[in-house]
Amino acid sequence: MALLPSDIIFYVVLIAPGFVAVMTAVSLAAIEDEISQPVLLIWSLVSSVIIDSLFLEAYQVLEGPIESFDVLRTLFFTPSFRADLILLILFFSVVVGIVYAVGILADLPGRLRRGIQSTAHIKYNPRQPWENFMKGARSIRIKTSDDELYTGDVVEWSRAGKPKEVRVDHPYRYSLEEEDYECVGGDSMLFLEEDIDRVMLREEDDRPSMIQRISSTLGLSPDEGSGGLGLSTLRDGYEQYREADSTITYLLMSLVAAVFLIEILVTGFRGLGSIQVFATGVFGVYPWIAWPLSPVLHKGILHFAASLVGLLVVGVPIETHWNWKRYTVFLVLTGYATILAGAAVLGWFSDQQVAFYGTSGIIYALAGYSLTHLPRKHDELSLVEKFAVFIGVVALLSVLIDPFTGPFFEPRWINGGHTSGFLIGAVIGWFSGNCS
Asked: pTM of this prediction?
C-alpha cells in the first residue's frame, strides 16, 4: 500500500522530536567531544519514544482517548491540519533537550559514573588527564618551553583531544632579577601547545557547581554540623508554617475537605461511578446548590489534593500580610470572580450546560499577589514567603503558556479561572501598600 502524504508527515513527526531534542542538548551544552553517529541515532530514537509518549499522554488528557492505530495515523489531520499539535510536540522536544543539556552541564553522567566506580573500586574516566586537571583549576603556574614562568587565572582551555591551549587573565611573569612576579602588561594571555612545557596547579576552583547553587537556593545545601542536607532549613520552614497565624486559610481548607467528603458520600450512595459525574451534573440538577458551592467543589482526589497543597503553601504565608476581614473578603470575591470568568470563557465557546468549579482560581490569585507584593514591599522574606514567590512565578508561566497549548477556540482552550485569578491577585499586590 502506497504511503499517503499524511502518512509521511505522521512518521516524520513521530521520529523527528528525538533528533530535535538531541541537537538542542548538544547546542546548549556545547558538547565538543566527537559523538559517533550510531550513538547519536540511538540517543535520538530513544528520545523520540520518550517525547511521543509524553505528547500522546497529554493529547489523551486534553482531547480524548486514542482507540486505534488508524486514529493515531490521522491524528494531525482531524478534522483539518493541526498545527497546534505540531507546535505542542515541538515544545516537548525542546523541553526534553533543555533537560538533557542541564544534566550534561551539571555533570550528572559523571556523578553517576563516579558513584558506580566507587562501589566497584574502578578508576576510569573518559576524559584526558589534561581535561580533568584543568576542570578543577582556578589559578595555574605555567612553565613555558623557553623556561619562563607565568601565572594567571584560568579563563578557558581546550577540550576533547584538541591541541592543549589555555587562556589566563591577569598574567604575571616571574622575574629572576626581582625574584618576584611582575605584570606582563595585558589583561589576558593565550598559551599554545608548543609554548607549554608544564602546568602546575596554584589554586582550585572553589566556585559552587550548578547542583550546589540550586541546592543552596532551595535550602538543601549541607548545614555546618548537621550531617544532612539542609535539615535545619527544612525544620525552619516547617516551624514557619506551623507558627503562622493563618486561621482563615485553615478554615477554608476545612470547608473544602468537608464539601469533598460530601461529594464522596453522595457519589457512593447514588452509584454515579465518579466524583466528576456528580460535581458536573449537580449544576444541571441543583444549580441553586452548585453555583454557591462552586469555589469549593472538586472533580476528583487529585483536584482536591492540589487545592489543599496550594492553599497551604501560598495561603498560609500570604494571610499574615492581611487583617482577617480583608483577607476573608479577598478570598470570597476572588473565589466567585474567577468562577464567573471561567464560566464566561466556557460559555463563549460552547452552547451546552456550563459547569465551572474549583479552588484553583483563589490559589492563582494568592500566587499573583505573592509575586507582585512580597518582593516589592519587603526587604527580607522568610523561607515560606520565598516559596510563595516561586509559586507565583510558576503560576505566571502557566498563565502565559496556557493560550498556546490548545485546543484553540474550544471550551478547554484557556482556563479563565486561572488567568483571571492571577491577574486579580497581581494587580491587588502591585497597588497594595506596605504591611507590618
From this structure: 0.51
